[in-house]
Amino acid sequence: MEKFRKEILKFLERHGNVDLEELGVLLGVSGAEVANEVATLEKEGIICGYHTVINWDSAGVDKVNALIEVRVTPQRNEGFDKIARRISNYREVSSVYLISGAFDLLITIEGKTLLEVSRFVSERLSPLEDIVSTSTHFILKKYKDFGTCMEVPNKDERMLVTP
């Protein structure tokens, strides 16, 4: 991949809301060139979406997030893809990853309450025929999400003492 594309992708990954004219200045090209390249990257499926990281705790919104490890029976000629696509279609599912280790898939889900998330796992996810077992881990606090620190550091209120 040419250097120009890599630079755009690296920057957008960390700063998705950047003004394309400003990015052009940083890269030494016009904003139109950056916009054209971004449009091409979107069309090619290289840029798949844009996200804002929100600290829901600070916003006063109750949400429950969980990581679900799933052991799956892979299907002939499909491997894990068929069940992963099926799981991805649930509204509650934020992400699905094929992983190494004791489990096959790692799923992140979001709900309003612990009970809602538990019911999703027990009533909708676990009964799927290709799923052998699940292990649920509730996220109690986020310190860093998508590369963004979630806490605002406390200002040190001590007075500076000089000799």
UniProtKB/TrEMBL annotation:
Pfam families to which the protein is assigned, alphabetical: AsnC_trans_reg
Tree of life domain: Bacteria
Key words, A-Z: DNA-binding, Transcription, Transcription regulation
Where would I find the HTH asnC-type domain in this sequence? 1-62
Q: Which SUPFAM superfamilies match?
A: Dimeric alpha+beta barrel (SSF54909), Winged helix' DNA-binding domain (SSF46785)
InterPro entries the UniProt entry points to:
AsnC-type_HTH_dom (IPR000485), Dimeric_a/b-barrel (IPR011008), Tscrpt_reg_AsnC-like (IPR019888), Tscrpt_reg_AsnC/Lrp_C (IPR019887), WH-like_DNA-bd_sf (IPR036388), WH_DNA-bd_sf (IPR036390)
Kindly give the PANTHER family that the UniProt entry links to this protein: LEUCINE-RESPONSIVE REGULATORY PROTEIN, TRANSCRIPTIONAL REGULATOR AZLB
What's the protein here called? Lrp/AsnC family transcriptional regulator
Biological source species: Ohessyouella blattaphilus
